[in-house]
Design a protein that fits this description.
Order of helices and strands: HHEEEE
Radius of gyration: 29 Å
Helix content: 40-55%
Distance between the termini: 102 Å
Strand order of the largest sheet: 1-2-3-4
Number of helices: 2
């Protein structure tokens, strides 16, 4: 009948198909790693901005009411150097009553060419926090 020939290697087609499959797997894995690194970096910046805004808000909440009214519209923090074009802004607005102020602490920065920001908002009364 038919004699089977013993093969001693791979054909060119088998090698090309193997390389194609390997290439697809490598591209897929590298894109997953790239997305993971970007996601980690973005999360790190959001956490850092949150920390900065939280620290500034706590400083303001510990101030006397009349001193809050004299604050400027910006603030600085040593960790702004960790954020690309990081800046801090304060917004002090009248609240629902004459002895209530709405305080907004905003941290802004650039990430991959887009402007990002993190806001913290609280209301402060002349009598202090949570006073009725």
């Amino acid at each position: 009948m038919f004699k089977l020939m013993k093969r001693n290697g791979f054909s060119l087609i088998e090698i090309l198909i193997s390389l194609l499959i390997l290439g697809v797997v490598i591209v897929t894995i590298s894109s997953v790693f790239f997305y993971g690194f970007n996601s980690t970096n973005r999360t790190k910046q959001v956490v850092l901005a949150t920390q900065i805004a939280h620290e500034e808000m706590e400083l303001i909440r510990n101030m006397k009411f009349d001193n809050i009214l004299t604050l400027g519209s910006t603030f600085s923090h040593v960790l702004f150097s960790e954020l690309d074009n990081g800046v801090g802004a304060l917004f002090i607005q009248d609240g629902p009553g004459s002895d209530i102020k709405k305080i907004t602490v905003q941290v802004s920065w650039d990430y991959q060419g887009k402007s990002k920001r993190k806001n913290f908002v609280t209301y402060i009364t002349r009598d202090g926090i949570d006073k009725k």
